[in-house]
Each structure stands twice: as C-alpha cells, then as structure tokens.
Design brief:
Layout: H1 2-10, H2 12-52, H3 58-67, H4 95-99, H5 114-133, H6 137-159, H7 164-177, H8 186-211, H9 218-231, H10 236-256, H11 269-295
Helix pairs in contact: 2-5, 2-6, 5-6, 6-7, 6-11, 7-8, 7-9, 8-9, 9-11, 10-11
C-alpha cells in the first residue's frame, strides 16, 4: 500500500487517471443518490406524519415499503418501465449507455441522458481536481466536495430540496479538512460557516418581511454555510455574486422562453454549487483580479 501511495505521489498522470476513473464509478452511485434520496425522505415524512396523527395509514406505509427503496444500497437498480434489474455489465459508467444505445437491454425503453452526464461530469471534475491540486489532502477534499455538489445540484433541480443528509455532513467535513489548513484556516472556515448561513438567512427574512413571500429555502442557507466552511469567509462574496448572476441570467432566459412563469420558483442550490466550484478552482485568481481592477486608477 505504501508503495502504491508513493507511486501515485510520483506519477501525476496515474493519479489524475485514477481520480477520473473513481469519479466515473462514484458518478454512477450519485445517480442512485439523486433518484432515491428524495423518495426515501418522502417515505420517512409520510410515516412520521402518520405516527404523529396516531392513526397510521397502514396501506400507505406498506406501499412505501414495497415501492420505495429501503436505502441507497438495496435493492439493485432496475428499469422503471419493465422492472428489469440492471446487471453489472449494464452498469459500467458511460460504456454501458453507449453499448445499449441509450435503451433498456430488455424492453428497449429510453434511458435518460442524465445518467451518463452525471457520470461524465463526476469523472471529468474529479480528474481536473487531481490535476489542479496535485496529490495530497486538498485534492481528496476537493473531490469529495465536487461529488456532494453534483448530487445536491440535480436533487434541487428535480425536487427543490437540499437534503440535510448531504449539506450538514458536508459542512462538518469542510471544518475537519481545514483543521489542517487545507483550503483556508480553521478560523476562516468556522466564520465562513456562520457567515454563509446568516447571509442568506438575513436575505430570506428581509424578503419575507417586505413581500410576505419566501424567496428561498433553508437548504440554501445550509449549503452556503457548507461552502463557507470549505473555502473560508472571504470567498463568500464571490460565491454569492457568481451564483446570483448565473441564476438571474438563467431565470430570465427561462421566463423569456416561456418555460417558467414569473411566480414559479427556480432552485438556487445549483447556482450556489456552481459558484462554489468556480471559487474552489479559481477563487483566488478572480479575487486578486478584482482587487487589482479596483486599485487601478
């Protein structure tokens, strides 16, 4: 094991290639997380509501137990159209989708293009993080952050939910990694977590008091707190600015294209995740360039 670790340390191409391969494999698992975690949350909420009412709907509970997966590991993935269980050969990232031509091997139903996209994005970004940071703790932490942000992005797009099961562990992981000054100092990480939460919490309440409407969810507060814990408080203005600009542009495009009405909410989590990724890789350069422009007479 020690020899293999030394080999990864000495060979950048091997480390980058291995990181990309692991990213592809994890991307396949992220597809499971994106699909199942919201359903598992919904099942738990229904069962909790039934218990609180002291009149549990046994039919709903049994239906949930039969239809919804028990956890992220079982049962095996299956075609939603015919129930065909996906074999190991049919679950190879990217290659299986290409070999099957985007269709179920049994019934021929179309497989969503999202699955290979998630796998490819996970693999590419994992390899890029390995190249950008080099062998070490920073690369490992960045890859974990990337995987979590990918899952949160697609879950929020689908359900407008940012599960605590991901955001809260992500926050604590950021603080743990920065105990070793991996991305920032521990003081900056703790302040970043607090400031990230309070920044959007304040906006939420100002907007609600002014309009009587809720402009965002509590999951957004927790996600920005997690990003602050990873990157430090000084990156938060850049993350908020990037996510707001991209979110505003996408929102305007959707409204003009008549795909969204003005009153239909647009998830903000994906834009926070995108801003966090940009800051992770290029935050220092962007901040320095901005300060340089301000200092230029």
């Amino acid at each position: 094991m020690t020899a293999f670790v030394q080999l990864l340390h000495d060979s950048a191409p091997l480390f980058i290639s291995l990181s990309g391969l692991i990213g592809l494999l994890v991307g396949s698992f992220l597809n499971v997380v994106i699909h199942r975690l919201p359903k598992m949350m919904e099942r738990d909420w229904r069962m909790q509501c039934a218990e609180l009412n002291e009149q549990p709907d046994q039919g709903a509970v049994l239906e949930n137990r039969k239809v919804l997966p028990c956890n992220l590991l079982s049962p095996r993935s299956a075609c939603p159209h015919c129930g065909h269980q996906i074999s190991a050969l049919e679950n190879i990232p990217l290659l299986s989708y290409l070999a099957l031509r985007g269709k179920c091997g049994k019934c021929g139903a179309a497989i969503s293009i999202r699955y290979p996209i998630v796998e490819a994005v996970s693999g590419i970004l994992s390899a890029y993080a390995a190249w950008h940071f080099g062998f070490g703790l920073a690369a490992g932490g960045a890859i974990l952050l990337i995987w979590a942000l990918i899952a949160l992005t697609f879950i929020d797009f689908d359900t407008q939910l940012l599960p605590d099961d991901i955001t809260l562990p992500l926050l604590w992981l950021g603080i743990i990694f920065n105990l070793f000054n991996t991305f920032t100092s521990i003081n900056s990480a703790v302040v970043g977590a607090v400031a990230g939460y309070l920044a959007l919490w304040s906006v939420y309440w100002l907007f609600k008091l002014a309009t009587g409407k809720e402009g965002m969810g509590y999951g957004d507060f927790k996600l920005l707190a997690a990003i602050g814990a990873w990157l430090g408080w000084f990156m938060l203005p850049l993350v908020i600015m990037l996510s707001s600009v991209v979110g505003a542009i996408v929102g305007i495009i959707l409204i003009i294209a008549a795909r969204h009405g003005r009153n239909i909410p647009i998830p903000f989590g994906p834009y926070l995740a995108g801003g966090g990724l940009i800051a992770l890789f290029w935050g220092q350069q962007l901040t320095q360039s901005y300060l340089h422009l301000l200092a230029t007479p």
